[in-house]
Amino acid sequence: MARLQSLRPQVASLPSRLKSTFTLGREQEAYGQGRGGRPWRRKRDAVLKRDGYVCQPCKRNNHTTMATEVDHVIPQAEGGSDDETNLQAICDPCHKAKTADEAKRGANRSRSGGTSQRGTRS
Ligand SMILES: [Zn+2]
After folding, report:
1. Ligand 1 geometric centre to CA of 1 (Å)
2. Region 17-45: what's the mean pLDDT?
3. Measuring CA to CA, which residue among 72, 71, 79 is closest to residue 109?
4. CA torsion angle for 15, 16, 22, 25 (degrees, to 10)?
5. With left for phi above 0 and alpha for psi between -120 and 50, is residue 113 left, alpha or beta?
6. How many angstroms separate the CA atoms of 36 and 3, rounded?
7. Distance 98 CA to ligand 1 centre (A)
């Protein structure tokens, strides 16, 4: 009898322990979903600063446009990394044009299965 009674508090403490690990797991999950939040923002700022807030595609065309976005030089869909070396400052119109171009290229590629079509014209 005395033994059974001493066991009881241990059993009672178990559910609360489980509960705390459960909430911890949920927090980690929520943190995982937050990817692309603060770390990306910091990287974005670093790239913008590095490129002097000047749109790089515009700069190549001898235009100086203030960059408001950061773009993947090689799209992630095409195997580009998330590294700063693969990122460039870009203005909104260029970003939209590039994204549309990439989408078109991706569609072409999956249809024809070749890389014969190149979007560069300079
Ligand atoms: Zn631009």
Report:
1. 80
2. 59
3. 79
4. -140
5. left
6. 54
7. 10
- On whether the pTM is more than 0.85, the answer is no
Higher-scoring residue by pLDDT: 30, 110: 110
Task: Summarize pLDDT for 80-92 with one digit per residue, the tens.
Answer: 999 999 999 999 9
Work out the mean pLDDT of the chain and round it to a whole number.
77
Distance 45 CA to ligand 1 centre (A): 17
- Give the per-residue pLDDT at 94: 97
Instruction: Pick the closest to residue 71 from 88, 48, 53 (CA basis).
Output: 88
Per-domain residue ranges for the chain?
A: 1-33, 41-110
Q: Between these two residues, 64 and 30, which has the higher pLDDT value?
A: 64
Half-sphere CA count of 113, side-chain side, radius 13 A: 0
The single residue listed with the structure tokens 């590629």 is 109
Q: State both tokens at 61.
A: 């065309």
- Centroid of ligand 1 to alpha carbon of 108 (angstroms): 24
